[in-house]
Amino acid sequence: MNAATDTPGLLRLRGIRRSFGEKLVLDGVDLDVDAHQVVALVGASGSGKSTLLRTVNLLETIDDGEILLAGEDVSDPRVDADAVRARIGVVFQHYNLFPHLSVLDNVTLAARLVHRMPRADAERRGLELLDSVGLAGFAAAFPDRLSGGQQQRVAIVRAIATGPELLLLDEVTSALDPELVGEVLALVRSLAEGGTTILMATHEMAFAREVADRVVFLDAGRIIEDAPAHEFFTAPREARTREFLTRFLRE
């Protein structure tokens, strides 16, 4: 588990509200993520976890509130959203690799096109990262030649290849067969131990307990509890949290 640093609030969310038609999905969310911290979002399906991550990456426009990234108000409509997204790595449930590009081209695309890194430098960095996760031998392969777990590891490598300030992980194991989950979680654990700042939505409770600095429980678009991981699982303060954990662990 990472220790929080003295640098507060790499990401700060204040009063975030988001509705889809008549349905209120995020209801006044306040959340801080410090540099080098790992924060896990947990909650039932439909609780707002994925929508919250999408608002951080400006894929969803908030109705009210403020999103600060390293002190900058990135929720200001005048902000260049693409420039903000270039500072954030995102990995979704489904790998979203480009099927017509090789693994190495998938990994280096953003570095070359968005960050204008020379191809040779981008490929050197990409190969180093692929080697670090045991996938250098697949650099020239196309995604359909890889297992689901391998594809998700490539997606994570792609997300970190540009050195993002913040990594968002949205249920990155939910689309995987059970036997493939472990290899993806091992990579996330390694990133966490290396100091990557991570905000992740997950249903892997044991993993959240082991890796996260803090666990945040969302219910109906509101944060019900936000506590250090050990405290969250051993002595939750809120009755709703205890009910969720009891039901989840019983399933």
From TrEMBL:
Localization per Swiss-Prot or TrEMBL: Cell membrane
Stretches assigned to the ABC transporter domain? 11-245
User: What organism does the UniProt record list as the source?
Assistant: Agromyces salentinus
What GO MF annotations does this protein's record show? Answer: ATP binding
Major subcellular site: membrane
The keyword Nucleotide-binding is annotated on this UniProt entry: yes
**Membrane topology, from the record:** Peripheral membrane protein
**PANTHER family from the xrefs?**
AMINO ACID IMPORT ATP-BINDING PROTEIN (PTHR43166), GLUTAMATE_ASPARTATE IMPORT ATP-BINDING PROTEIN GLTL (PTHR43166:SF9)
Q: Please give one Pfam family short name.
A: ABC_tran
Q: What name does the UniProt record give this protein?
A: Amino acid ABC transporter ATP-binding protein
SUPFAM superfamilies, per database record: P-loop containing nucleoside triphosphate hydrolases
